[in-house]
Amino acid sequence: MTSQDSTAGPSAFDLKAFLRSRTDRINRALDRLLPRPGTKPPTIHRAMRYSMFAGGKRLRPILCLAAAEACNGSIQAALPLACAVECIHTYSLIHDDLPAMDNDDFRRGKPTSHKVFGEGIAILAGDALLTHAFEIIALAKPTPRYRAQDYLRELARAAGSRFLIAGQVADLENEGRSVSRRELQFVHQCKTSALLCAAVRLGGMSANCPPSHLQALTRFGQHVGLAFQIVDDILDVTQSSEKLGKTAGKDARAQKATYPALLGLDASRRLAARLTAQAFAALALFRGRAAALEALAGHLLRRDR
Ligand code: GRG
């Protein structure tokens, strides 16, 4: 079996219908959980909603719901956790696009927040989404194994100075210098894997999963997270800005360390496939209940945007 075959995923699972229905549930929940656009002061609430409903793929919250379902949990219980993760993710994109960071004009196919609302409001919209994530997560119901503070700690840790922020700091400090594969892996694990991993762990926690399942979800999240970022690096080289909804080819122009730059395109593709196969292997103990997670991992590997 080639690495390509081993990531083909189950054919019976209707991923398209799954993505459609879960995206719809998440969008409705986000609409309910965010302050209405007219709430005073309207500018900030419009800016929060502008980025939140700009057409993101909702991968992290979908993974959160799929993890809950793999652990026999309910979508309803996982939804506040899924939405909190999406708030953190959207905040990080708004701030990453700022002139002081990546200075990007387009995101999710639309002008970035600072282009529409100005830099001050964009910074505040990111801050507000970051803060709102914790208000939303406080709505999640505790289970016999996991308390409200376990959810809080999980999200704060992934978004904090040892993971998400650490990755961004390392990324900034790596600019203009040559970077080893280990250093690049550190950036990707912190910037991308940590939040994705928290998303699946929170889904499992909302379903009161036992420690063995939480461990399996952690391994799954780490492998899928890294594979996702490698594919993101590949798409930056191979796809157009129109397709990606953001400026393509920026990494190469900025001579940024990426997997394709370090290993070449073919080796990067092989590595992403190997990591996805490892993610599948981590799901073995779910014995067929993780069809959605499997299909999602395969989809993330094969995605074109
Ligand atoms: C805290 C400012 C700050 C940054 C933290 C997450 C991050 C570091 C920066 C965001 C930009 C970036 C390249 C992140 C890597 C993860 C990634 C590929 C994000 C894009 O995720 P998608 O494709 O985006 O899921 P959509 O728009 O579909 O939600």
Characterization of the model:
The protein has helices spanning 15-33, 42-52, 59-70, 75-96, 113-117, 119-137, 148-159, 164-174, 181-206, 211-238, 241-244, 250-253, 259-263, 265-282, 291-302; strands at residues 106-107, 110-111. The protein is built from 15 helices and two strands. It has 305 residues and is mainly alpha-helical. Strands 1-2 form a two-stranded antiparallel sheet. A hairpin with a 2-residue loop joins β1 (106-107) and β2 (110-111). The chain has one domain (12-304): Farnesyl Diphosphate Synthase (Orthogonal Bundle). It starts with 14 loop residues before the first helix and ends with a helix. The radius of gyration is 18 Å and the shape is globular. Geranylgeranyl diphosphate binds next to α4, α8, α9 and α10.
Features:
single chain, 305 residues, mainly alpha, Farnesyl Diphosphate Synthase, two-stranded antiparallel ribbon, 15 helices, globular, disordered N terminus, binds geranylgeranyl diphosphate
The poorly predicted ranges are 1-10
Number of strands: 2
| Average predicted confidence as pLDDT | 93
Termini separation comes to: 27 Å
Broad CATH class: Mainly Alpha
CATH superfamily assignment? Answer: Farnesyl Diphosphate Synthase
SSE layout:
Elements: H1 15-33, H2 42-52, H3 59-70, H4 75-96, E1 106-107, E2 110-111, H5 113-117, H6 119-137, H7 148-159, H8 164-174, H9 181-206, H10 211-238, H11 241-244, H12 250-253, H13 259-263, H14 265-282, H15 291-302
Antiparallel strand pairs: 1-2
Helix pairs in contact: 1-4, 2-6, 3-4, 3-9, 3-15, 4-6, 4-9, 7-9, 8-9, 9-10, 10-14, 10-15, 14-15
The structure holds geranylgeranyl diphosphate.
